[in-house]
C-alpha cells in the first residue's frame, strides 16, 4: 500500500472513529469534522510538496555527484600519469641497484 493510500485510509478511519465516539452533536460536530478534514487536506498537501522537494533535491545531488565524479576522475588520472612518468626513472634506478646487489651477493 502506498503512503498516500495509507494516509487516506488512516484519515477515513480516524474520522469514522471520531464520529462514533464524539460526545458532541449537530453543528459542533460538523465544524469539528470540517476542521479535521481541512487539516488532513493541508497535511497531505504538505507531504506531497515535501516529496516533490525530496525528489528535486535527490536529482540535484545525483547530477552534482556525476559532475564531480567525472572531474575528480580526470584529475586522479592525470595525477597517476604524472606520478608514473616522474617515478619511472627512479624505479629503473632502484631495479638496477637491486640487480647489482644481487650479483654482488652471488659472488
Summarize the structure.
The protein has 107 residues and is an all-alpha fold. Helix content is 93%, strand content 0%. Pfam families: YtxH.
Describe the structure.
The chain has 107 residues and is mainly α. It has one domain. The protein is 93% helix and 0% strand. It is built from two helices and no strands. Helix 1 runs antiparallel to helix 2. The longest helix has 81 residues, at 26-106. The radius of gyration is 35 Å and the shape is rod-shaped. The N and C termini lie far apart (81 Å). The mean pLDDT is 86. This is YtxH domain-containing protein. It holds the Pfam family YtxH. InterPro entries: YtxH. It comes from Latilactobacillus curvatus (Lactobacillus curvatus).
